[in-house]
Write a structure and sequence with these properties.
The structure holds two protein chains of two kinds. By secondary structure, chain A is of the alpha/beta class. Helix content of chain A is 43%, strand content 20%. The relative contact order of chain A is 0.13. Chain B is mainly beta. Chain B is 7% helix and 54% strand. In chain B, the strands form eight sheets. Chain B has a 22-stranded antiparallel barrel. In chain B, strands 1-6-7-4-5 form a five-stranded mixed β-sheet. A two-stranded antiparallel sheet of chain B has the order 2-3. The longest helix of chain B is centred in the N-terminal third of the chain and has 17 residues. Classes of the chains: A alpha/beta, B mainly beta.
């Protein structure tokens, strides 16, 4: 209910702001509005990267907007770039038929694509997370994964990968948030490492404290899914950097305009990956971390 | 007409609403709060510049300890004593590392979450009265050896750092009750909850027992009864900033035995002493970026002791033949400590870790008795400190640290530290280190003055006045100094299931402060003797310590530690104070704790402790060759039965302590090996309930 209210308000503000800023794109050929979240440095960095790339490329008018502060004109044909779930939902409320490049972790189930709307999927393939674990320490033979109904597909994909990598993956289902800590304790006690997956039901800024503190108390490492997770206290993560996303999005947008306002594909993905490590946490846990470069090389050798 | 004001209102409203539902919209792009920042991390033994022992939650529970000192017996070189106190003072639990200790154990710093809790008046810690509940402790780190540049002043021979759990880790209800012999009745209730970014917990506890027994089986007058409340709030302001606020209030009633020492001229009566202990702490943790973070920490400690009594009859023969008189004494005191500290962590690159900080501390003690005639004393202390850890390659680490400290009434002191670590691989490390530290005299040592006076009346003569200075201050008292060198080894064996930590060391202590009776002219009219704190002695401590932690299987763990010590003094051996120093620690001591989970329902633990003979520094005088605390062995057993009912976890445990012979861990009757009091069988049932 609250989420719906916010979307309505967001849409209202979009409408509101275009009416007080007419003519913002008056002299430009292609008009782009990039929407990111005010609360996410990562999204803001991605938006900046797209803007820098496109402004260098050619004659485009770009507005970067955080949350409800959007300047556009309804009278001008505009491509929206929505970064993250919150921006995507809000934009959908505002205009479900707009030209949109949606940048999101994973595909939304049941998405309907047109040539005017496309997704850029940023999540790394599941097998890369398993490769990362093998590259850091081949002795980590048992891996715990906490999964809710929202991430069962990820858990299933990870299971397939672990079979190939000769690892034992144990998936612990979280059906009720009140079970999280108990299940977490069991998962940590019975495995050598906890692999966090993109599942906001389990991993969010409210729960990450308990998860990291509990794992640390048991002296077990956590492998995260983002650089922010590593800064929070995970030992390492493989992820797509804001620079890679920005560069890929820029290329897609250029192609979109070259193709007369049509996307070439419904879904784009990113091949590049970044690795982040937290040497302080690793040192405290007496884990000898290879350098990020040697982890990368080790992963590139693996099938 | 849309105005800017309307836009601001809408935007603010939207932002506020977003905040409440932020989690629903989180994805891999979302920023997460920094949880394991540099200051919250336990220093790995293989990286530490000094020897560090860590007692974790499992060990605390398995030891069956009701008080913190009991679990500290697992640390090599630490000895724990129960002073029943035949001086006529309240009984104290005493924790000492490498001897040199009387009941006040002055040469050790004790911190709770970075808050130094030693008593500014007399030093030491009243472990019965610290307002912390053992169930709230995450772990206890003990630094063996001086480490002032990390932990501040008085981190002299050792540092005990008690770390409590983050409030988010104690969600739901927790209750515990212990009932057993010796009138043991302990009860704890804790509730932890959260509201968005705020995590909180409140703990209430009471601890009660009748203490020790006399050798003839009679109960000694050392009953302890305490009640406490402590609370902690952790508020995540945003992903990079966190506020912690904690507070506590505790009160302890302790029986004090009457003065039993025949040589004491003024004898105190049996009585009850009330101690109050409270604190407030506010801490701001901020992460600037990947390379930098800082902490601003303020705390306030408050201690109050109420001890008002009338002495036992004092022989007045010096004034009137055959008469006695009594004195009314108010030995109460109040102390407070304010401390403000800033610490900055900088990692310019992955190989270099820098920390610097500064702090100011204000200590004040009010006491009519201890600071005659002024009634109070205070002191400011300022510190500037820094350390650098440089991993110049994967095998070599250099660790440097220094503390500059200026206290009112003493010179500026410098406490440096250097350690070089060579890592053969990720399993074996050797460490060579040298460090210096100082112990600033406590306020009573520095400027305490005790004066007794009474009007002695006789029906036939005019009244006479009895006056005596008991303590007078030494104007030029210096800090105690320690210089420590060590060679340490840390290794992992058996696929890292067994860790071994050992070190050989030599500590040279100088300007040690003692209180001999010396001639004094405290006032022009007074010509006699009094206790005067003076820098008179030097000692050398040499020894070997070792610690083993072996996870035999996922269900069995063995922890063992031991120490061999030799203390020598520059005086003639076995004469006066020199002998006291040399006998103040056991030549050898060791401990073993085994923990085993039989299955999900049953678990158990067994602790064994051996302590060689020794004498505490304030023990009764005894014959040459007799150490007042004889060799003793302790065997403790704990058996647990666990139950699960949905979200509720219930466990019952039987704890049996001192299963071997009765023993004494503090004092013997003067000139005899007979103990003043004994530790005998302690048995209690523990009931725990946790509802998440």
């Amino acid at each position: 209910m609250k989420t719906a209210s916010i979307h309505s308000m967001f849409a209202f503000l979009l409408t509101l702001v275009f009416s007080i800023s007419p003519g913002a794109f008056a002299d430009s050929k292609h008009h782009i509005v990039i929407i990111s979240s005010l609360n996410s440095d990562f999204q803001k960095q991605t938006a900046s990267r797209i803007r820098e790339n496109l402004e260098a490329d050619g004659d485009m008018a770009i507005i970067v907007s955080t949350d409800g502060i959007v300047s556009s004109s309804q009278n001008v044909k505009t491509l929206y770039v929505a970064i993250g779930e919150q921006a995507i939902n809000s934009l959908h409320e505002f205009d479900s038929n707009a030209f949109v490049l949606r940048i999101l972790s994973r595909s939304i189930l049941g998405s309907k694509y047109t040539s005017a709307q496309s997704d850029l999927i940023t999540a790394q393939p599941e097998c890369r997370h398993i490769q990362l674990i093998k590259a850091i320490n081949p002795d980590w033979s048992t891996v715990a994964v906490l999964s809710s109904v929202d991430s069962l597909d990820i858990a299933a994909a990870l299971t397939k990968c672990t079979i190939r990598q000769n690892l034992n993956l144990n998936v612990y289902a979280i059906t009720d948030k009140s079970d999280l800590l108990k299940t977490l304790e069991t998962a940590i006690e019975d495995n050598k490492v906890l692999l966090a997956i993109t599942d906001p039901y389990i991993y969010n800024s409210n729960t990450v404290k308990n998860i990291l503190l509990t794992a640390y108390r048991h002296r077990k490492p956590v492998i995260g899914y983002s650089d922010s997770f590593v800064q929070a206290g995970a030992v390492a993560a493989i992820y797509t950097s804001s620079e890679s996303i920005g560069d890929k999005a820029s290329r897609i947008i250029s192609g979109f305009f070259d193709n007369n306002w049509q996307f070439n594909k419904n879904v784009y993905s990113i091949d590049d990956f970044s690795i982040s490590t937290n040497t302080q946490v690793a040192t405290s846990l007496e884990i000898t971390l290879p350098s990020e470069e040697s982890i990368r090389k080790s992963m590139e050798k693996r099938p | 007409m849309i105005t800017i004001r309307h836009c601001i209102v809408f935007t603010c409203l939207q932002l506020a609403l977003c905040g409440t539902v932020a989690y629903a919209a989180e994805d891999e792009f979302s920023d997460l709060p920094v949880v394991l920042s540099a200051d919250k991390l336990e220093q790995a033994p293989s990286r530490a510049p000094v020897a560090i022992s860590s007692i974790d939650r499992d060990m605390i529970e398995a030891s069956g300890a009701r008080t913190i000192p009991e679990v500290l017996r697992l640390i090599p070189g630490i000895v724990v004593g129960h002073s029943v106190n035949d001086f006529g003072d309240k009984p104290l639990l005493v924790v000492a590392y490498h001897g040199h200790s009387d009941q006040y154990s002055k040469q050790m710093n004790v911190l709770i979450d970075g808050r130094s809790i030693y008593d500014p008046l007399l030093g030491g810690v009243n472990w019965y009265n610290i307002p912390i509940v053992i169930d709230d402790i995450e772990r206890i780190e003990v630094t063996r050896g001086p480490n002032a540049s990390t932990y501040g002043s008085n981190s002299f021979m050792a540092v005990i750092n008690i770390i409590t759990r983050h409030a988010s880790e104690d969600q739901g209800h927790f209750a515990k009750v212990n009932v057993g012999n010796h009138d043991i009745f302990d009860a704890t209730y804790r509730y932890g909850g959260n509201n968005g970014d705020l995590d909180y917990r409140v703990t209430l506890a009471t601890v009660n027992d009748d203490g020790q027994d006399r050798a003839d089986g009679a109960n000694a007058n050392d009953d302890v009864s305490s009640g406490k409340i402590d609370y902690r709030l952790d508020y995540q302001i945003n992903t990079k900033n966190q506020l912690t606020y904690s507070g506590s209030y505790g009160r302890t009633d302790q029986q004090a035995e009457q003065t039993l020492r025949p040589e004491e001229p003024i004898k105190k009566p049996q009585r009850e002493i009330q101690d109050t202990n409270a604190h407030q702490l506010l801490r701001w943790d901020s992460t600037i970026n990947k390379q930098q973070s800082f902490i601003v920490n303020y705390f306030f400690n408050y201690l109050k002791e109420e001890d008002v009594y009338t002495t036992l009859p004092i022989d007045a023969s010096v004034v009137f033949s055959g008469l006695t008189f009594e004195m009314d004494i108010d030995a109460s005191y109040k102390s407070q400590r304010h401390n403000l500290e800033f610490t900055h962590f900088i990692d310019p690159n992955e190989a270099l870790h820098l920390v610097w900080g500064l702090s100011g501390q204000y200590d004040k003690v009010e006491s009519e008795r201890y600071f005659y005639p002024v009634g109070n004393n205070s002191r400011n202390t300022f510190r500037l400190y820094g350390s650098a850890v440089w991993d110049f390659n994967s095998h070599n680490t250099l660790d440097l640290g220094v503390l500059f400290e200026k206290s009112e009434g003493t010179e500026t002191d410098v406490s440096p530290r250097i350690a070089y670590l060579y890592h053969f691989n990720d399993k074996h490390t050797i460490r060579v280190g040298a460090s210096q530290a100082v112990r600033t005299p406590f306020l009573f040592e520095q400027s305490g003055q005790v004066f007794d006076s009474a009007l002695v009346t006789d029906l036939t003569d005019p009244p006479a006045i009895f006056e005596n200075f008991v303590y007078v201050p030494e104007n030029n008292l210096k800090t105690e100094k320690i210089t420590s060198i060590e060679l340490g080894y840390y290794g992992k064996f058996l696929r890292k299931k067994l860790s071994v930590s050992t070190r050989i060391f030599q500590d040279m202590l100088d300007d040690l402060i003692t209180d001999p009776v010396l001639p004094t002219s405290a006032t022009p009219d007074f010509d006699g003797v009094a206790f005067i704190y003076s820098n008179l002695h030097a000692t050398t401590v040499r020894g070997i310590e070792a610690e083993f932690d072996y996870s035999i299987s996922t269900s069995t763990r063995l922890f063992a530690s031991g120490a061999l010590l030799d203390i020598s003094s520059d005086d003639d051996p076995y004469e006066g104070k020199s002998r006291e120093y040399e006998e103040s620690a056991p030549d050898k001591s060791f401990s073993v704790l085994t923990m085993h989970d039989f299955n999900e329902k049953y678990s158990g633990s067994l602790g064994f402790y051996y302590v060689g003979d020794m004498s505490w520094m304030d023990a009764n005088p005894n014959l040459p060759g007799v150490r007042n605390t004889g060799v003793y062995r302790i065997l403790d057993l704990r058996l647990v039965r666990n139950f699960k009912f949905g979200n509720e976890r219930l466990s019952t445990a039987i704890v049996l302590k001192n299963l071997l012979d009765d023993y004494s861990d503090y004092d013997a009757i003067q000139n005899t090996p007979e103990p003043v009091v004994v530790q005998n069988l302690v048995a209690y049932v523990e009931l725990k309930l946790k509802i998440q």
